[in-house]
Amino acid sequence: MLTRAPIDSASMRILSVVGARPQFVKLAPIANAMQGEAEHLIAHTGQHYDHNMSDVFFAELGIPKPDFNLGIGSGRHGEQTGAMLAGLEKVISEVAPDWVLVYGDTNSTLAAALAAVKLHVPVAHLEAGLRSFNRRMPEEHNRVLTDHAADLLLAPTRIAMEHLAAEGLAKRSILVGDVMTDVLYQVRDRVAGTPLRLGAAVEPGQYYIATIHRPDNTDDPDRLRAIIDGIAKVGKPVVLLAHPRLRDLAQRHGIPLDVGSIVVSEPVGYPELVNAVAHSAGVITDSGGLQKEAFLLRVPCTTIRPETEWVETVEIGWNVLVDKDFGELTATVERPRPAETDAAPYGTGQAAETVVRALLERA
Ligand code: UD1
Description:
Rossmann fold, 2 domains
C-alpha cells in the first residue's frame, strides 16, 4: 500500500493524529517544535467537532489547520473507533509517513496506533506509560493497547517509565517530559497580568472552576446528582464549564445543573481556561489535564475520581481525591492552601523539542 520510498531525516515526514480537546493542547507545542525540522502533517479524526471543543484550540494556540479531517463525530466506542480506523488507514497509506505520532488516551489515539501498525508504519506514543489501573475507564484500555502496539514510547514522568518497564516495554521507552507543561507555561506567561476574562459574574480569588465529564461520573443518575448536590453547597460560586456530555446526561436524568453555588458556563478555549484557573480559589474536576494544570498554576485541586494518573499532584499535596461522601465535598474544596513547593515532576517546559529530536534520531 505504501508508495513512498524511505527518506532521510532531513526531510522526515511525521503525521500527527488528533481528535479530542486535550490532544489539540498537546499538539500545539509539538507543531511548533516541528517547524523547520520535519515535514509535519496533521490528521483530525473529528471526534470533537463543536467550535468550542475543537476549532477554538487551533485558532488560539496557533496550530496549523489539519491536512485531513475525517469528520467522524460522536458514536458508541466501537462504532467511533472503527470508523476512525478505516478513515486513518486511507490517510496513512496516502501520506506514507516515517512516523505516526499519537497523543494521550482517547479513541482517536487507539484507532491511529492500530491503523499505523497494520500498515507497518512506525508509531510513537506521546504521553505513554500513564496508568489509572481502573479498567472501567475507556482511556485505560486505550493507553495500554496503544503502548503495547507502539514502536516508541514517549513518557512524561519517571512513574510512567516505571509502569512501562513493569510491562516489559523499557527498551522502547524514553523519558521526554510533559508537553502539556510546555504549553501551559507558554500560555500562562502570555495571559499573566491580564484581568479575569471569564464571562460569569465572579470576582478574582472568590470562585472555583469545575469540570465533570467522565462516564463514571455522568452516566449513573444517582452519582451525578450526588456530585452536583455536593458542588452546589460549596461556599463560593463554582463556575461549571459544562462539557456537552454533562449537559446531555444531566438533562436526560432530569438533574438541574444551575443550583446552589453553581454557575453554568460553556466550555472555554485554552487561554481563557488558564486565565480562569489562575484567578480562581481552586479547581474541582474529573479531567486528567486540569489536575496537572491546577498544580502547575499552584491552585488547589479536588478530583472527583477514585484514582489519578497524575499521582505526583496528590503526593506533593496539591490534589485531593474524593470518590464518595460528596456531602462532605465542601470541607475538602475549602481546605487550607498546601505548603508551597518548587517540585517539577512534569519537567520545565521543553518536552516538545525532546520529542521531535527523539523522532528525528530514530528514522
Ligand atoms: C473524550 C475522551 C476523554 C477526554 C475527553 C476530553 C475517549 C474514550 N474519551 O471524552 O479521554 O478526556 O474526550 O473532552 O476518547 N460531544 C459534543 N460535541 C463535541 C464532542 C462531543 O456534543 O464536539 C458530545 C456528544 O454527545 C458525545 C459526547 O459529547 O457523544 C462524548 O464525546 P466523546 O468524544 O465520545 O467522549 P468525551 O466524553 O468527550
